[in-house]
Amino acid sequence: MEKQSATALSVKNLTVTLGNEKVLDNLSFEVATGESLAIIGPNGAGKTMLFRALIGVLSYKGKISWAPKTTIGYVPQKLDIERNLPLSLLDLLTSKNNHRHSITASLKLVRLKENLLNRPIGALSGGQFQKALIAFALLQDPRVLLFDEPTAGVDTPGEEHIYETIHRLQEEKGFTILLISHDLSLVYRYADKVLCLNRENLCFGEPEVIMAPEILGKLYGEERSFYKHHRHDIFPPIK
Q1: C-alpha gyration radius of the chain
Q2: The total number of structural domains that make up the chain
Q3: What are phi and psi of 227, to 5 degrees?
């Protein structure tokens, strides 16, 4: 699906203060409809605080403008429930939407089999659980998906599949994607734009330009390198 040129999100002069400390300072950027934006930066850079401001659970100064009638699905880094609870995948999903056809459709989008529905969430693999969280977010019928470290706790092969799922959802359904990630190789491969964040906007642009060693060194305060796959080389764009 071709990306559209309309603006999905505009952020202007965003400042977030917790106590007496600025965790975000004068941040401005835009995301086009159907685009994928990766947010990178060191721990404590304000990445999760940015997401919390974007979904309206954190006070801020400045302006956040979503396109009219925008619906947002948020996939957290982890769910605030114990995975050893006697809770099945079906229990989890029906807590958001009890329409079986919606649950079936969401599972199909993330390519999880329905026979997993009666499995305890603690018995799911890391990759299956992350896909379950994406399916949970899809039950809100969003047009924008926010991912906070979508591959946290997932092994390396599983990381590839999670990013392939995100990329496929973007291509097939035209979702606008914002994701926080530490994996620079996967960011380089899949993101349309990159926002470098360390409490303020240090850089913003296309991966090929932004993710140069000198810029990453400034961002992280140390030399950073990563393996540059050709963009979408393993999972080519879906026509």
Answers
A1: 18
A2: 2
A3: -80, 120
Domain boundaries, position 117: 80-141
Q: Which helix (H) or strand (E) holds 204?
A: strand 201-205
Residues sharing a CB contact under 8 Å with residue 38, sequence separation 6 or more, in sequence order: 179, 180, 181, 187, 190, 191, 193, 194, 195, 207
| Tokens linked to 146 | 């926010």
Q: Are 104 and 136 in contact (CB under 8 A)?
A: no
CA distance 207 to 191: 7
pTM of the model: 0.85
In a domain, 170, yes or no: yes
Sequential pLDDT tens for the chain (239 residues): 445 569 999 999 999 999 889 999 999 999 999 999 999 998 889 999 999 999 999 999 999 999 999 999 999 876 666 667 788 999 999 998 889 999 999 999 999 999 999 999 889 888 898 999 999 999 989 999 999 988 877 777 778 888 889 999 999 999 999 999 988 888 888 899 999 998 877 789 999 888 888 888 888 877 665 556 555 443 333 33
Contacts of 196 (CB under 8 A, 6+ apart): 40, 41, 202, 203, 204, 210, 215, 219
d(C-alpha 194, C-alpha 150), whole Å: 16
- Is 88 among the domain residues? yes
The two structure tokens encoding residue 234: 């393993």
Q: Do both 100 and 194 map to the same domain? A: no
